[in-house]
Write a sequence for this structure.
């Protein structure tokens, strides 16, 4: 076991539910039993059992990442169905002495039973971007049909969880997959007077079924200061994104 829940449950067009778990045991890691964070991850597929009146869940094959690429393994996975039916899983990573902060991904062509090679999520021109060890989500818009990624892309090389700004939204190139660089748009960023550990992270995301706008709810942890009780004196914000 040793796994914990990912960020979502995907309802696939094949009728199954797909969920990715994080920090699963990694049989290929000689330090697995000594690490607080496990290097593995796998998907679970749920099929409806009418007789039992419940879903039957089946674990897929595991993938692993080296601790030299992500010091805390594959964290907070989010799963999305691509236009061709493949399943995309994107993980939060954490920087190492040799690898800057990145997001990592793999693709499944068989509904989560197996995942391909774990690779660095990049821009569609093949260049890299910095991303701290932080939360992210994907959502397909019900009108445009486009798949969007929302998370932190930082201008400087991250150190662990920081900096968790700016928060951006971007379209995904589903064939590669990759982030379409020209579409990266800031939702919010650190302002003058705000501490450098303000977090635009750990948000909730939905599409409003009446307005078709994307709504994001976020508590800006650390906006009032970095020390003592003021860290917890943050406001909650609602962001509305109109996409086309």
């Amino acid at each position: 076991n040793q796994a914990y829940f990912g960020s979502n449950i995907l309802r696939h067009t094949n009728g199954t539910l797909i969920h990715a778990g994080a920090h699963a045991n990694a049989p290929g890691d000689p330090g697995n039993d000594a690490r607080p964070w496990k290097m593995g991850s796998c998907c679970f597929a749920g099929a409806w059992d009418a007789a039992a009146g419940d879903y039957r869940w089946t674990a897929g094959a595991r993938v692993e990442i080296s601790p030299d690429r992500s010091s805390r393994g594959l964290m907070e996975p989010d799963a999305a169905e691509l236009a061709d039916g493949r399943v995309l899983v994107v993980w939060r990573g954490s920087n190492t002495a040799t690898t800057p902060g990145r997001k990592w991904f793999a693709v499944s062509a068989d509904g989560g039973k197996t995942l391909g090679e774990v690779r660095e999520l990049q821009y569609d021109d093949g260049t890299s971007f910095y991303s701290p060890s932080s939360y992210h989500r994907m959502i397909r818009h019900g009108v445009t049909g486009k798949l969007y990624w929302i998370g932190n892309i930082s201008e400087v090389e991250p150190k662990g969880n920081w900096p968790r700004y700016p928060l951006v939204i971007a379209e995904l190139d589903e064939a590669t997959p990759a982030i379409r660089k020209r579409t990266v748009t800031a939702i919010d960023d650190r302002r003058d007077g705000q501490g450098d550990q303000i977090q635009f992270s750990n948000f909730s995301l939905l599409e409003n079924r009446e307005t078709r706008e994307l709504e994001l709810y976020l508590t800006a942890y650390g906006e009032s200061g970095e020390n003592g009780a003021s860290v917890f004196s943050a406001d909650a914000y609602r962001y509305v994104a109109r996409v086309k």
User: Anything to note?
Assistant: The CA atoms of residues 82 and 175 lie 8 Å apart. The two ends are 42 Å apart (CA to CA). The longest strand covers residues 40-49.
